[in-house]
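Input record (one chain):
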Amino acid sequence: MDARRGEVFYAFYRQVPAGVQRLSDMRCGTPEELCSEIQATGEECLAIGDGALRYADQLCDLIRVEIEDASLAYPSPSALVQLAHTRALREEFVNAWDLQPVYLRKADAEVNWQTGPGR
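The corresponding structure, as predicted from the sequence alone:
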């Protein structure tokens, strides 16, 4: 996903019979860092999301990387239901009060407060 500020949010996934399996931690980094990680794997890669579209020129320079078109840049509600359905079949339920947001970097206000004059 496009994280703005010249960065992308990303993680590596593999398709498995029950949906997808995350292979790496979720990260925030520059497109160059992402490209380096893709090259290090030596595997074929399908890049999906608005970040893949925004930085397609850099990703297309890599061998074994395919950029998915804009129709899959954002997950559809039906795709999210399909992912949830497979987890429900395995009885992997999560209570709403257990959900926590994932922040991969500090908010601009927090960064500006810590680096502002007199800090």
